[in-house]
Amino acid sequence: MHNPFAFKRAKGFYFFAFKPFMVYNNFKKKLIFLGEKIMKQKIAYLISSLFTVPMVALLVFTIMWFDNSYKNFNGNFYYYINSIFFFTIIPLCAYIVARSFPKFKAVGREVERKLAFVFGIVGYLLGNISLMFMKKPTRAMVGLYLSYLISALILAFVNKVLRFKASGHACGITGPIVAINFIAGIKMIYLALLIPLVMWSRLVLKRHDTKQLLAGAATSFFVTLIIMIWIY
């Protein structure tokens, strides 16, 4: 005859016997999940750091030089250096300043973001002014210089006046990739894969939401597209 008390005792025995294994498995799953999350964060941070707006500018202008230095820079290395100085070096100074002065470091990322806009716009403005002192700036230079300046001004207006945090990273990766496909040809279309990759990194790091990323990307996409169609 079945003994209900014996069944309960057996059930209790197995529960306590296997409970440590259950706890271990749950702990192991949580540990794996935490490890994957940390790794995901590290990868996202690396992508976000590699593809800041100034570094994308360095990438694009360098591709232009090696693709066709004569067509894109009139074969003049000074034109290439001029581009790097105004569109990479000056904007990068924002990060150096933000992390060098205690009063800026205390405020955190918000002041770094504001300085990035200021240094970026100053660099782009001076870069466009420098075109006036060149004997023969190329269409590629004029198009890209203008695209950077106008996109940055619109983004600054959206962020400062409209109080909408449109993504600078999304803006800084999308427009230049549109431009390089006009300048170097459709063979550069594979670079478009960087756009969702950079957006993903910003989402993982929780620096922006989807709307802010799309707003930043759309700004530089349409500005660059219009300017490049007009010039080319």
What does this molecule look like?
The chain crosses the membrane at residues 43-65, 77-97, 117-134, 140-158, 170-193, 213-231. Keywords: Membrane, Transmembrane, Transmembrane helix. This is Phosphoesterase PA-phosphatase related. This protein is globular. It has helices spanning 4-50, 53-73, 77-100, 102-107, 109-131, 139-160, 168-183, 194-204, 210-231. The protein is an all-alpha fold. The chain folds into two domains: 1-50; 51-231. The N and C termini lie far apart (93 Å). It is built from nine helices and no strands. The longest helix is centred in the N-terminal third of the chain and has 47 residues, at 4-50.
Task: Give a nutshell description of this structure.
With 232 residues, the chain is mostly helical.
Average pLDDT level: 88
What is the strand tally? Answer: 0
Shape: globular
Please state the structural category: mainly alpha
* Number of discrete domains: 2
How are helices and strands ordered from N to C? HHHHHHHHH
Question: Uncertain regions: pLDDT < 50 for 5+ in a row?
Answer: none
Measured as a percent range, the helix fraction is over 70%
Q: What is the strand content?
A: under 5%
Compute the separation of the termini in Å. 93 Å
